[in-house]
Design a protein that fits this description.
By secondary structure, the chain is an alpha+beta fold. It is built from 16 helices and 23 strands. It has 5 domains: about 220 residues, Growth Hormone, Chain: A (Up-down Bundle), CATH 1.20.1250.20; about 210 residues, MFS general substrate transporter like domains (Growth Hormone, Chain: A, Up-down Bundle), CATH 1.20.1250.20; about 90 residues, Immunoglobulin-like (Sandwich); about 100 residues, Domain of unknown function DUF5300 (Immunoglobulin-like, Sandwich), CATH 2.60.40; about 30 residues.
Length: about 700
C-alpha cells in the first residue's frame, strides 16, 4: 500500500522515531537536575554520571547493528530493544518518586540508595534500548523503498531528521515544565516522576505504533555484518605481517595487502578506504566533549542565572531548546545562503575545512561560556571564612543607632528602619559590641566565628539589641528563594505566605528561613489580635534570600519592609544565547558535513562501519568530559571552560594539518577499476580453459 508515492509503512516509522526521540531527549533534559537536586549529588559527580550515560548510549549502537545484521534482523531488533527501553524509562520514572521511601513524610527520600539503584538500572536499560535501536530505524526505513524510488528515499531521510529535531525540541520545552510542577502524595516536591513518566508513556506509544504497522513492512533477511568481515580482514593482515616480519620476505605496498592470501582484493581495497577515513576521526571526539556539555555544565550554569523573560519564566533545563530551535533555522540557511556565498567568493570550502571551522567555533563557544561564568561569579555572595564572621545591622527603632565595634574599627550608624549589608570582620579584632541609640546603650557579646549574623536593634524595646542567627551557608539552589519574617510589632503575629504557614511569632522574634520556588509573588497574611491583614509580596527574583519585616497594619493593608540578605541571580539567562548560537553554528558545519564526507569517501556497503565509527567519536567525547571533570583540580568553573576551549583549539590545529595532507578519493572509480580487473581475470581464465580444451581435443 502506498500514499503520495511513499510506502504507507514509512508513516509508522516516522511517528515511531518522533516518539522515541521525544522520550530520549525529554528524559535527558531533566537528568542532570534530577542527579543534582533529587539524588543530592554535587556538580562534579552529576556531570560524571551524566556523561557516562551519554557515552553508553553511543557505544551500544555498534552492538545493535551487529544483532540486527547477523542474527535477529532489523524488525525484531527494534521491537525487542524497544521493550527493554520502555521498561528502563518506567523504572527511571519510579526511581524519582520520593514517596517510595519517604516514611517520615518530610518530602525527601529516607533511603536514597534505593532510588540510586533503581535509577542506574533504568538508565542502563535505556542506554541499551536507545543505542540498539539507533542504527536500525533509519536503515529499516530505507529498506522500505524500491530501487527506483531514489528521490523518495532521500526525501524520507530529510523528513526523518526533521522528526528527530521536532521530537527533541518539543520534549526539551515540555519536560522541564512538567518537572517544575509541584506534586507528591505526602509532601509537595518538584515533579520528576511526571517528567520521566511522560517520556516513558511516549516510548510505549512508539512501540505500539511500530508493531501495528508490522504487516506492511518489507523485512529484509539479515545479510551478515560487514563490520565482522572488516575486523577479520584487519586481524588476519596484522597476524600475517607479524609472521613474515624477517627481511627475506619482500615488502608489500600497504600493510593490509598481507591479507591477500585469504581475502579477496575488493574487500581489502574497501577496508583501506574505510581506515583512511577512520584515521581522520581520531581528533573528532574533542568536539563532542564540548558539545554534550550543553546538557550538563551549561544547564547547571543556567541554574545560577535569572530566567525572567517578562511574560514567561524559563526553567534552567529549557535553555537547551535553543539548540534544536537554531538547528531547524540554521541548516536550511547555511545550505541555501552561506555555502553559495562562500562559493561565489571563489573560496574552496572543502568538507574537511568545514569540519575544522566547526571545531574552531565550538572552542569559541566555550570562551563565551567562560565570560558569562566570570560575570556570574562576580554576583555570588561571599560567606565568612573560618577565622571571620559577618554582621548585618538592622535598625527597627525610631532613632539612629550607632554600633561601636572596638578601638581599631570604625563605628557604624544606621538610620531608623534601615539596615546595612553584611560586613566582614576578622574574629580576632572584635570585642564585645556597644550599641547606642538615643539616650540608651547596650552591650552585646561578639559574633560567632565563621557565621553570618544579624544584629537587631530597637531603641523602644526593653531588650534593645539582640543577635539573630542567619543559618544560610550558600546561595539557594535551582533559582529558589529563602524567606523569613521578623515581627516588629508589640503583639504576637501569626504569619502565612502563600500556602506556607510560618506559625506565631512573638514580638521582635524571627522565623526560620523557608524555601520558595523562584520568580513568583505570593500573598503575605498576618493575623494580629484575631484581625487579618494582607499584602502581595514583591517579586523575590531567583536565588535570593530576604528578611521581611512586619511593621503594622492600616485597615486591611499590611505594611512590610524587605531586607535583602542574598541578592537574586542578576545575570540574565539570555546571556547564554550567544554561546548556544556559536556552538550550533559549529554543529551545523561539523556534524552534517562529517557524515556526508564519510559516506562520499567509502564504498556504499561500508556505511554501517563508518556510522559505527562516527557514533564511537561521540562516546569517546563524553568519556573525555568524565576524565577532565574527574581529574582536573580546577575550583573555578570558568577555568574549566577555558581548559576545554584550549584543548579543542589544539586538536583543531592538529586536524587542520591532517586534513591538509588528505587526498580525496572517488570510491566509485576504485570499484569500477576492481570490476575491470575481475572481468579481465575472468576472460583470462576463459582463454586458458579454451586452450586447455583445444589441447585435450588434439590428443
Amino acid at each position: 500500500p502506498s500514499c503520495f508515492g511513499y510506502p504507507l509503512s514509512i508513516f509508522f516509522i516516522v511517528i515511531n522515531e518522533f516518539c522515541e526521540r521525544f522520550s530520549y531527549y525529554g528524559m535527558k533534559a531533566v537528568l542532570i537536575l534530577y542527579f543534582r537536586y533529587f539524588l543530592q549529588w554535587d556538580d562534579n559527580l552529576s556531570t560524571v554520571i551524566y556523561h557516562t550515560f551519554v557515552a553508553l548510549c553511543y557505544l551500544t549502537p555498534i552492538l545493535g547493528a551487529l544483532i540486527a545484521d547477523s542474527w535477529l534482523g532489523k524488525f525484531k531488533t527494534i521491537v525487542s530493544l524497544s521493550i527493554v527501553y520502555t521498561i528502563g524509562q518506567a523504572i527511571t520514572s519510579v526511581s524519582s518518586i520520593n514517596d517510595l521511601t519517604d516514611h517520615n513524610r518530610d518530602g525527601s527520600p529516607d533511603n536514597v540508595p534505593v532510588h540510586i539503584a533503581l535509577c542506574m538500572i533504568g538508565l542502563i536499560l535505556i542506554a541499551f534500548g536507545t543505542g540498539g535501536i539507533k542504527p536500525c530505524v533509519a536503515a529499516f526505513g530505507g529498506d522500505q523503498f524500491e530501487d527506483d524510488q531514489e528521490k523518495q528515499r532521500s526525501r524520507f531521510f530529510s523528513i526523518f531528521y526533521l522528526s528527530i529535531n521536532a521530537g527533541s525540541l518539543l520534549s526539551t520545552i515540555i519536560t522541564p515544565i512538567l518537572r517544575a510542577q509541584e506534586c507528591g502524595i505526602h509532601a509537595k516536591q518538584r515533579c520528576y516522576p511526571l517528567a520521566f513518566g511522560v517520556p516513558a508513556a511516549l516510548m510505549a506509544i512508539a512501540l505500539v505504533v511500530f508493531v501495528i504497522g508490522s504487516g506492511m513492512y518489507k523485512k529484509v533477511q539479515p545479510q551478515g555484518n560487514i563490520m565482522i568481515q572488516v575486523f577479520k580482514c584487519i586481524g588476519f593482515a596484522i597476524k600475517n605481517r607479524f609472521r613474515h616480519r624477517s627481511s627475506k620476505f619482500p615488502k608489500r605496498e600497504h600493510w593490509l595487502d598481507w591479507a591477500n592470501e585469504k581475502y579477496d582484493k575488493r574487500l581489502i581495497a574497501q577496508t583501506k578506504m574505510v581506515l583512511k577515513v577512520l584515521f581522520l576521526y581520531i581528533p573528532l571526539p574533542m568536539f563532542w566533549a564540548l558539545f554534550d556539555q550543553q546538557g550538563s555544565r551549561w544547564t547547571l550554569q543556567a541554574t545560577t542565572m535569572d530566567g525572567d523573560f517578562g511574560a514567561i519564566k524559563i526553567q534552567p533545563d529549557q535553555m537547551q531548546t535553543v539548540n534544536p530551535i537554531l538547528i531547524i533555522i540554521m541548516v536550511p540557511v547555511v545550505d541555501a545562503v552561506i555555502y553559495p556565498l562562500i562559493k561565489k567568493c571563489k573560496i574552496n570550502f572543502t568538507p574537511l575545512r568545514k569540519i575544522t571551522v566547526g571545531m574552531f567555533l565550538a572552542s569559541m563557544a566555550f570562551v563565551a561560556a567562560a565570560l558569562v561564568q566570570v560575570q556570574i561569579d562576580k554576583t555570588l555572595p561571599v560567606f565568612p571564612a573560618e577565622e571571620q564572621c559577618q554582621i548585618k545591622i538592622i535598625n527597627l527603632g525610631t532613632g539612629n543607632a550607632t554600633v561601636q565595634f572596638g578601638p581599631q574599627l570604625q563605628n557604624v550608624t544606621v538610620e531608623p528602619m534601615k539596615w546595612t549589608d553584611y560586613m566582614t570582620f576578622e574574629y580576632s579584632q572584635l570585642q564585645s559590641l556597644n550599641v547606642i541609640s538615643g539616650n540608651k546603650s547596650a552591650t552585646v557579646p561578639k559574633c560567632v566565628m565563621g557565621m553570618r549574623q544579624t544584629l537587631r536593634v530597637k531603641n523602644t524595646a526593653t531588650d534593645m539589641a539582640a543577635w539573630l542567627f542567619d543559618n544560610v551557608t550558600s546561595k539557594p539552589e535551582e533559582g529558589n528563594n529563602l524567606i523569613r519574617f521578623i515581627n516588629n510589632f508589640p503583639d504576637p503575629v501569626n504569619v502565612t505566605m502563600g500556602d506556607t504557614p510560618f506559625g506565631t511569632l512573638m514580638s521582635l522574634s524571627v522565623s526560620n528561613y523557608t524555601l520558595f520556588s523562584g520568580g513568583r509573588t505570593d500573598n503575605i497574611t498576618a493575623i494580629i489580635n484575631s484581625k487579618s491583614c494582607s499584602v502581595t509580596s514583591e517579586s523575590f527574583g531567583f536565588g535570593s534570600a530576604y528578611t521581611v519585616v512586619i511593621n503594622n497594619c492600616t485597615g486591611d493593608n499590611l505594611n512590610v519592609a524587605y531586607s535583602e540578605d542574598i541578592e537574586p541571580n542578576s545575570v540574565h539567562m539570555a546571556w547564554q544565547i550567544p554561546q548556544y548560537f556559536i556552538l550550533t553554528c559549529g554543529e551545523v558545519v561539523f556534524s552534517v558535513t562529517g557524515l556526508e564526507f564519510s559516506y562520499s569517501q567509502a564504498p556504499s556497503n561500508m556505511k554501517a562501519v563508518l556510522q559505527a565509527g562516527w557514533l564511537l567519536t561521540v562516546a569517546v567525547g563524553n568519556i573525555i568530559v568524565l576524565i577532565v571533570a574527574g581529574a582536573s583540580k580546577l575550583n573555578e568553573q570558568w577555568a574549566e571552560y577555558v581548559l576545554f576551549a584550549a584543548l579543542l583549539l589544539a586538536v583543531c590545529i592538529i586536524f587542520a594539518i591532517m586534513a591538509y595532507f588528505y587526498t580525496y578519493i572517488d570510491p566509485n572509480e576504485i570499484e569500477a577499476q576492481l570490476d575491470e580487473e575481475e572481468k579481465k581475470r575472468a576472460k583470462k581464465d576463459e582463454d586458458v580453459n579454451e586452450k586447455q580444451v583445444e589441447a585435450d581435443s588434439r590428443m
